[in-house]
Design goal:
heterodimer; A: mainly beta; 7-stranded antiparallel sheet; 5-stranded antiparallel sheet; 34 strands; 48% strand; B: mainly beta; 5-stranded mixed sheet; 4-stranded antiparallel sheet; 33% strand; elongated
């Protein structure tokens, strides 16, 4: 849907103020993201150009990156839907800054299938900076960036036929990458797509048998989890998991790990053994997350059904350390059940979501590892006695201010808590959908976390 | 493609273009609905049959065929009573955190009964012995058809230890909705309205302001021979009983030029006229409640 709405000011000569070296400034709404404003501009001569913009009648509050040229396109990002946006261009020419006349444009509306995000708690003084980047995984699958007021400021058209459980910020910082796959796994439609902030699909590629989670490495390698189905004498077809790297040079994908070669993970029945989640066979390991640590140069994979989180060597696939039912490190046997989204903090601790046996709730947990004594110890948690039980997905994300964003998966709740457990922000979804994985984008024009 | 740049030209500097009505909650009608749903006691922890072969009239009183049911859900509300669930459903205010579990069924063509164990969610099948037990909260069955807005029928099941029940009848009358409305309760839209702008429309609901993006259809209806009372009496068919009706897809929009519309009889919209009754409705075709969130009458003076 193309929308050119309510452009006033420069084009119609309304607003006053300032001389201008701009020869043209045209604004329109991006074709596929109605909350993104595209400003096409031209100058009499090459200069460094940026825009300031804002809402509620103010032409300030946000500032774009600068571009050098005599013409170009600048995106105004981070805007709520159906909002009048004032913007003004600036050009620096030889030390002098000239200012274009201000304009106003209204952002478009979200697709009707987009469900509401409701904010329950919000303490602006205590939350970590930035937007939440993520998705609602199912019914419909919605990719979004939401601000702390619960307003969707970026999205892709919702879809019903796929699961889209994860969207991340690309290493280049100017696009998002997301995965999708069949809702019922009856056909292999798995792929990963890269989409610009302006909403254009930049690239997409098939990820055979891919599911749940992926990462982009600093060198552009994409790594994803794939089901690995094998015939067994005792159990017939059994669904395990492998980890596949897609090199950035386009060469053939490489399997860097398969649970079938992991001597620590025993094959055999468990409580979810007869699930038909994967129609291909017995649901053995049910991996739900893959994480690459640049500092450690290792992968960490989380297995829901065998209650184990494994860190393994990127190059040999050999287990370095693990925790849970088949863990190398001993820990409290009453802690780890259905672990989700294990990853390592900068402090060398492991975080994930667990639903401890015997409780009717899920906890975001942080564990430290003692490699000498082969023990793992709980050092922080949130969720005990809170009554939030994630049946599907979930994670615990340590933020830049040491807060933690606990994602209670199928409960529909995201809760940010301080280190001492104070809730400083919380959001819940409408009926029928719930968050997939999340990450934080501190600024559309700057560094992500 | 809808290009509304002409409106900005007309708008001048910050004003509202002539003929553009800014929609507000004060213009909209009064509406309320009371939902009623029965409960059937079943044996706790035991598989039970749900039979909807006799479901020929939905909870809104619309005739239907039992085999038109395309989706059925069983939702568990651990912390909500039946009354709280009913109120939440009537208000369209049930949220994901209210739900402790959900399973679904997509009946085969002609299928008019199913067991609890036929329901599943993402491959996880229901196990009544563990998941349908007394004391686990409220369990609500809802049935939907792809070709009809809203819930066709709902019914509670109530697991009880020692109960002797093998079938739940999802049939006519187990749930009903009483609608009441006052269509001309609001401030009428001006007769010279040729476009509408709902960017600032804040309709209060029991769970916050109605989301602007949920408005996905604009309906303008002209009645030459009916009164307000006639329309209220046939409220769910307000568009089909009109002399002429103009519909537009307004998904993604917040502003619409009515003069771009063509009616179902092929007539262009030439403006409102004082000799007819006119209604303007913003609708939500994906909501559980079939009543339009916004209806305004056009001033006939």
């Amino acid at each position: 849907m193309n929308r050119i709405l309510l452009v006033s000011g420069f084009m119609f000569g309304c607003s006053g103020g300032g001389s201008s070296e701009f020869t043209n400034v045209d604004a329109s709404i991006a074709d596929t993201v109605a909350t993104v404003v595209k400003v096409n501009w031209s100058l009499e001569e090459e200069a460094q150009v940026w825009f300031e913009y804002g809402i509620d009648g103010a032409c300030e509050g946000h500032e774009t990156s600068s571009i050098t040229g005599s013409q170009g396109e600048t995106l105004l990002l981070g805007l709520p839907p159906v909002t009048d946006v004032c913007f003004v261009g600036f050009a620096e020419l030889g030390g002098d800054v000239v200012e274009a006349e201000s304009q106003t444009i209204r952002t478009g509306n979200l697709p009707s299938a987009f469900s509401t995000m409701t904010i329950e708690d919000y303490n602006p003084d205590k939350v970590a900076p930035g937007y939440i980047v993520g998705s609602n995984a199912i019914d419909p699958a919605m990719l979004y960036v939401v601000n702390r007021e619960g307003e969707i400021v970026w999205y892709q058209e919702p879809v019903n036929e796929y699961l889209r459980p994860q969207m991340i910020i690309s290493q280049s910082g100017d696009s998002f990458i997301y995965n999708e796959f069949s809702k019922d796994f009856t056909d292999d439609s798995s792929k990963i797509s890269r989409v610009s902030f302006g909403g254009e699909i930049i690239e997409e590629f098939d990820t055979p048998d891919g599911h749940h989670s992926f990462q982009e490495l600093p060198d552009g390698t994409i790594v994803y989890i794939a089901i690995d189905v094998r015939e067994t004498d005792e159990w017939g077809l059994v669904v395990g998991d492998s980890v596949v790297e897609i090199p950035p040079d386009g060469s053939d994908p490489v399997v860097v790990y398969t649970v079938w070669d992991d001597p620590n993970i025993e094959l055999g029945p468990h409580s979810e053994w007869d699930s038909t989640f994967y129609p291909q066979g017995r649901d053995w390991t049910h991996a739900n997350y893959i994480y690459y640590s640049e500092d450690r140069d290792t992968y960490t994979i989380s297995f829901r059904n065998v209650n184990t989180v494994v860190e393994f060597d990127r190059y040999t696939g050999e287990t370095i350390r693990s925790v849970g039912r088949f863990g190398t490190h001993a820990t409290d046997p009453g802690l780890i059940q259905y672990p989700h989204a294990g990853y390592w903090t900068a402090d060398g601790t492991l975080m994930f979501l667990t639903s401890p046996p015997g409780t009717n709730e899920s906890w975001g947990v942080e564990m430290s590892f003692d490699d000498q004594n082969m023990e793992a110890e709980l050092v922080w948690s949130y969720g005990n006695d809170e009554g939030h039980k994630a049946l599907i997905l979930g994670e615990a994300l340590r933020l830049s201010n040491d807060n933690t964003l606990v994602n209670f998966g199928s409960t529909g709740r995201l809760i940010e808590v301080t280190p001492d457990g104070e809730e400083v922000w919380s959001l819940y979804t409408s009926i029928g959908t719930f968050p997939g994985h999340t990450t934080i984008l501190e600024d559309f024009y700057g560094e992500d976390q | 493609m809808i290009n509304l740049s002409i409106l900005s030209l007309l708008a001048g500097c910050g004003g509202t273009p002539e003929g553009t009505a800014l929609l507000t909650a004060e213009q909209s009608y009064d509406f309320s609905n009371v939902l009623f749903a029965q409960s059937t006691v079943i044996t706790s922890g035991v598989d039970t049959t749900i039979n909807w072969s006799n479901l020929t009239v939905d909870q809104l009183g619309r005739e239907m065929s039992p085999d038109s049911i395309d989706t059925m859900l069983i939702v568990r509300f651990e912390a909500l009573s039946h009354e709280e669930v009913i109120q939440g459903a009537a208000d369209d205010c049930i949220e994901q955190p209210d739900i402790s579990g959900v399973v679904e069924l997509h009946p085969e063509e002609g299928q008019v009964s199913a067991n609890l164990t036929d329901f599943s969610f993402m491959g996880y099948e229901i196990d009544p012995a563990e998941q349908i037990l007394e004391g686990m909260g409220s369990f609500l069955i809802t049935a939907y058809s792809d070709d009809a807005i809203g819930v066709r029928m709902m019914h509670f099941i109530e697991p009880e230890v020692g109960a002797d029940a093998s079938t739940v009848e999802l049939e006519n009358g187990v749930a009903s909705v009483d609608l009441s409305m006052d269509i001309d309760a609001g401030t009428p839209l001006p007769l010279n309205t040729t476009s509408i702008d709902w960017a600032g429309l804040e309709l209060d609901t029991p769970c916050g302001t109605f989301p602007l993006n949920r408005f996905d259809r604009l309906t303008v209806v002209k009645y030459d021979d009916l009164t307000i009372a006639d329309v209220e009496n046939d409220f769910l068919y307000m568009d089909t009983i009109g002399t002429d009706v103009w519909n537009a897809d307004i998904e993604g929009l917040s502003l619409f030029d009515l003069t771009t519309m063509t009616s179902e009889t092929g007539a262009p919209f030439d403006g409102f006229t004082p000799d007819s009754l006119w209604l303007v409705a913003l609708r939500c075709m994906t909501c559980d409640n079939p009543a339009p969130p916004y209806i305004a009458v056009v001033d006939a003076e």
